[in-house]
Specification:
Blueprint lengths: L9 E5 L22 H13 L4 E4 L11 H4 L4 H10 L5 E7 L5 H14 L4 E6 L18 H19 L7 E4 L4 E3 L9 E2 L4 E2 L14 E4 L4 H10 L2 E4 L4 H13 L12 E10 L3 H13 L9 H11 L22 H14 L3 H11 L3 E5 L1 H13 L5 E4 L6 H16 L12 H5 L10
Parallel strand pairs: 1-2, 1-13, 2-3, 3-4, 4-9, 9-10, 10-11, 11-12, 11-13
Antiparallel strand pairs: 5-6, 7-8
Bound molecules: flavin mononucleotide.
């Protein structure tokens, strides 16, 4: 009789050098800086020691002195992951790249290169870039509408996957006796002509160790879910309640069948912002202390308002801070996060100031304050009740916010059999239980 391996959760470290909490860098134990390589390397190694599936670097295409400290300046994620690859051996390496403001050839090349450098640990978080202010940094005219961005993204991903098949396994021969370096019959031009992209190929990187780097998708609107159902292997999402997370999980997984895919071909990973204490009160106090560093003058800074305006998709700086969230039309920018925050504000009757305080910590992701056992309970519940296949862990500050999770919560999850104690393979696909995609030319 074959023994069935029990299902285990997947864990990602959502790494941001100045922490996830907008004021996390002010914590006495925090070291910070999105360009602080020693800190970032240490965090990736800590996550690897804890057997995390991957470390993830988000990315945006705008900046300013009023931005979140983790976003205002940061090392370009693929450059940084190449450096992190050198100091790690097993952990997956995931980064965001935009389908609205990049070229498919560049993206295919960069992620295939990272997969080679890291021996099969690369993943691409496909985003369409929500914020319309991004357009001002590129010479392409206006920010495209939401629907068009997702149409472009669909074609973009197809082209990238096509380029990743350019070289079949065995195409590079290096046969000294015959003088044949390449087997030309195993090298393929894509010759793609579509509504948005026109790309001949082949790619100038050989077949990646994972076949294709792992594909992640992070938009939760209906268009985002449809793209994910067709192409993604991981979905990042923000969810506040068990019920909403379960509904999202069910909805997304039910869309897979029409693309010939099974539920286990895609892992849903909501974000979790853990605040850990030796008692629940201590964790609550720690969270309150972080919040106290946010709004010290009684007036929110323009940066604070920008963070909330971005997430809502509308400029809210003209509204009274101690009044309710106004009725805002659906935005072209960020549909699922705007809806999540609007639902939350209506449900809990929050003022704009209170809503900002929610966003300052976890930007709409789930905040879990408690003892290590309580944090493990929270993860276990969502995992066992079909709300998640794993979690993206978002420490409020680094390195100690991560260290506490790794030293106190991970062993508790392992004790319960919910998380691995050793890696079973060397590639990110192996950690995720995902197969290597067949090459279309094989
Ligand atoms: C965990 C997580 C990480 C994300 N990372 C990025 C990112 O790095 N860059 C980006 O532009 N958007 C990022 N997003 C935002 C999504 O790509 C998307 O724009 C947003 O969720 C709105 O999508 P929707 O309009 O389909 O609802 C992220 C979302 C989540 C949940």
């Amino acid at each position: 009789m074959t023994q069935q391996t029990p299902r285990q959760m997947h864990l990602g470290l959502f790494l941001q050098g100045a922490g996830h909490h907008v004021a996390g860098w002010r914590h006495p134990d925090a070291d910070s800086g999105s360009e602080n390589l020693a800190l970032l390397q240490r965090a990736a190694q800590t996550a690897e020691r804890a057997k995390f599936d991957m470390v993830f670097l988000a990315d945006g295409l705008t900046s300013g002195a009023d931005a979140h400290p983790s976003f205002a300046v940061r090392i370009e994620p693929l450059c940084l992951l190449s450096a992190l690859a050198m100091g790690t051996t097993h952990i997956g390496l995931a980064a965001t790249a935009s389908t609205t403001y990049s070229e498919p050839f560049h993206i295919a090349r960069a992620f295939a290169s990272l997969d080679h450098l890291s021996n099969g640990r690369a993943a691409w978080n496909v985003v369409t870039t929500s914020y319309d202010k991004s357009a001002a940094n590129f010479t392409r005219g206006n920010h495209p509408a939401h629907e068009q961005r997702y149409a472009m993204a669909g074609e973009f991903v197809d082209v990238v996957r096509g380029l990743w098949d350019s070289w079949q396994d065995g195409a590079v021969l290096r046969d000294k006796s015959s003088g044949v370096y390449f087997d030309a019959s195993k090298v393929h031009a894509l010759n793609h002509q579509g509504p948005f992209f026109s790309i001949r190929g082949p790619l100038n990187v050989s077949r990646a160790p994972q076949g294709h780097p792992v594909l992640i998708q992070a938009g939760s609107s209906s268009d985002g879910q449809e793209l994910a159902a067709r192409t993604a292997e991981i979905v990042f999402t923000a969810q506040q309640t068990l019920e909403s997370a379960q509904a999202f999980y069910r909805d997304l997984k039910s869309r897979l069948r029409k693309y010939g895919r099974q539920p286990e071909h895609l892992h849903v990973m909501p974000g979790i912002f853990p605040v850990i204490g030796s008692s629940e009160q201590e964790a609550q106090d720690k969270y309150a202390q972080l919040q106290s560093w946010v709004d010290t003058t009684g007036e929110l800074s323009p940066g604070a308002l920008a963070l909330l305006s971005d997430r809502l998709g509308h400029d809210i700086s003209g509204y009274p801070l101690d009044g309710p969230l106004p009725d805002l039309p659906e935005s072209n920018q960020n549909k699922s996060r705007a809806k999540l925050l609007t639902d939350l504000a209506r449900r809990d009757n929050l003022t704009l100031r209170q809503l900002y305080h929610v966003v300052a910590g976890a930007r709409g992701h789930r905040i879990v304050c408690g003892t290590p056992v309580q944090v493990a309970d929270a993860l276990e519940e969502w995992f066992l009740k079909d709300a998640a296949d794993g979690f993206n862990i978002m420490p409020p500050y680094f390195p100690t916010g991560l260290d506490e999770f790794v030293e106190l919560v991970v062993p508790e999850l392992q004790r319960r059999g919910l998380f691995r104690t050793e890696y079973q393979g060397r590639t990110l696909r192996a950690h995720l239980g995902l197969t290597v995609p067949a090459n279309r030319y094989d």
